[in-house]
Amino acid sequence: MSVFHFQQFSVRQQQAAMKVCTDATLFGAMAPVAGGERVLDIGTGTGLLSLMLAQRGIASVTAVELDSAAAAEAAFNFRSSPWSDRLQVLQADIRDYAETAVAAFDLVICNPPFFQDHSKSPDNARRLARHNDSLPPADLLTTVDGLLTPKGLFHLLLPMHAVESVVALAPSCGLNLRCRTNIRGYARNKPKVAALVFAREEGMLLQRTLTIYREERIYSPDSQYYLSDLLLRFAKVNE
User: Fold this and answer.
1) How many whole angstroms separate alpha carbon 42 and alpha carbon 110?
2) Where residue 111 sits, what CATH number does that domain have?
3) Domain membership flag for residue 7
4) 61 φ, ψ to 5°?
5) Which residues constitute the domain of residue 118?
6) Does 107 map to a domain?
7) Domain named Methyltransferase small: which ranges (predicted)?
8) Which of these, 126, 145, 169, 183, is most buried using a 10 Å CB contact count?
């Protein structure tokens, strides 16, 4: 059985099309939680982002997942965590959920399908997780616009090749880019993904680059700052 252990929780990922990775973990760790009482996790997969936000004190996290096997696995991970009373997973299309949602969210977070067209995988679950066929960017942004509180924030992780088109589309869906963090493995590498933060209001754009490793498999100070309360390798340091 494939299980990834963190300091305070574990993630079973036997059914997961997309496994726990450093990019996604950093993405969840960077999301600010101040003022966020209600959080929505779109396409939760294993439930990783929801679990991380619950650990950081969010009072209520709703995770929505289209794939039934992934939703069942996320539910297992939630029940096995110390915050089961604050986490719930719903197996649904986010567009259908949005039509019946009774309250808006302070923070919406999403690590969506990364790949399109030319790189389709033969495995159906992996294809669903890797392609935006099931949830085109315009549908995602419009849906988020309808679910976000007036002062709410939308956090989105994207591959670099998809960033510009989504950023250009966002204003027509009521969202404006306020922060962009390009994430690269080493200082010598080009960034492969970007963590984006959108808000309803226009304002100054904060841009930065985060380097994961300072040398071979040794985390940079920035990475350690975000991951020190999560990864087991930092557990003894925190004691």
Assistant:
1) 5
2) 3.40.50.150
3) no
4) -125, 125
5) 18-27+35-231
6) yes
7) 36-130
8) 183
The tens digit of pLDDT for each residue in 160-212 reads: 999 999 999 999 999 999 999 999 999 999 999 999 999 999 999 999 999 99
Backbone angles phi, psi at 47, to 5 degrees: 95, 10
In single-letter form, the type of residue at position 222 comes to D
Own/partner contacts of 29-33, CB < 8 Å, gap of 24 or more, are 29/226, 29/227, 29/230, 30/181, 30/195, 30/210, 30/226, 31/107, 31/109, 31/155, 32/153, 33/57, 33/58, 33/107
117 and 49 Cβ atoms separated by less than 8 Å: no
Q: pLDDT-derived band of residue 60, with 50, 70 and 90 as boundaries? A: very high
What are the strands of the beta sheet with 206-211, ordered from one edge?
A: 87-91, 60-65, 38-42, 105-110, 148-159, 193-199, 176-184, 206-211
Outline where the chain has alpha helix (H): 22-30, 48-55, 68-79, 94-100, 124-130, 137-147, 160-169, 221-227, 235-238
Instruction: Confirm whether 97 is domain-assigned.
Output: yes
